[in-house]
Specification:
Helix 4 links the parallel strand 4 and strand 5. The protein has 10 helices and 13 strands. The relative contact order is 0.20. The protein has a single domain, classed as Thiolase/Chalcone synthase (Peroxisomal Thiolase, Chain A, domain 1, 3-Layer(aba) Sandwich). 30% of the residues lie in helices and 23% in strands. The longest helix has 22 residues. The strands form 4 sheets. A 5-stranded mixed sheet has the order 1-7-6-4-5, sandwiched between helices. Strands 8-13-12-11 form a 4-stranded mixed sheet, sandwiched between helices. By secondary structure, it is an alpha/beta fold. Bound molecules: acetyl coenzyme *A. Acetyl coenzyme *A (ACO) binds next to helix 2, helix 6 and helix 7.
Amino acid sequence: MAYAAFRSIGAYAPTRVLTNAELSTLVDTSDEWITKRTGIKERRIAAKNEFTSDLGMKAAQKALERSDVSVDDIDMVVCATISPDYFCMPSTAAIISTKLGIKGATAFDISAACTGFVYALSIAKAFIESGMKKNVLIIGAEKLSAITDYSDRGTCILFGDGAGSAVICATEDKSEAIIDIHTGADGEYADLLMTPNGGSGSSHDALADEASSCFMQMKGNETFKVAVKTLTKDVKEILADNNLTADKIVHFVPHQANLRIIKAVGDALKMKKEQVVLTVSKYGNTSGASIPMAINDIYESGNLKTGELMLLDAFGGGLTWGSALIPFAPKQ
Ligand code: ACO
């Protein structure tokens, strides 16, 4: 039987830094408020001519360089994004494939907001285990600045741009295999976090109203409470299903939405400080890119070793959620 191994990680963060101090010149807020309520100090913003596909391509290049797989070996590309280059088509995954020189591989985007990377991972695992694909490139890439309303202090302080990517390959060695992935969704909570305009369900007349935006809207406080509950429940379930306890996890990689959410979940799960991966202070919430960017952070700081067990835990618009148990399995 073929198993799916998490071979490599890469990420890219745009160079422009948007600080809390700069945001406080745009909306009625302060560094003190943002730091205290979210733990975010700064976030990255892509240049005008830098698209989600450019961020994704740079992250994927790094992941490919760190794997033993060439672009010719990649047979599927999945991009998780809520800020695609183009509304509907072409997919950002297809654009990234071409920018990387990948020819003829299956390529498509998925929409699961901040849970997107975990969803993409589950798709890669399923295709590999079924024998349909061998080497899958997954990407979480977001230019959230393109869909953020910089006059809304409830959202603009949270989001940033960036991308992360991983190469997932078939292996016969069960000790390298991604152990388990849980994903779920509940559309009943759709209105907590949405981009109400621009789609077929939108109330505005797109032809008459050119200025109508696709900005994100969020009921922050309600989202916060559901996030803590869902993230905690999800981890408890995946650990129990696999007869594991929290102390066996070397790296707990939660979605980087808000330091207070991460702390509340970490405490509820009795995770030690050194188990919890944190990047929210420097990148803010980069939605589908947040988890792979955080994994890349521990990899680049030399703290992610072969065989170490990672637990991913995500939550986002939809609502969606997901968790994954993964040994890091680079090709030696
Ligand atoms: N600066 C100063 N004051 C502010 C700001 C701001 N940026 N934003 C809100 N406030 C004010 C509010 O107006 C309110 O004032 P009031 O008491 O006079 O009415 C007060 O601060 C408290 O507002 P709350 O909304 O209750 O603040 P809260 O502590 O909940 O923090 C936040 C808001 C940071 C948005 C938090 O709710 C949060 O992080 N929510 C979850 C976000 C999340 O996880 N999203 C899911 C994933 S994202 C995705 O899928 C793309």
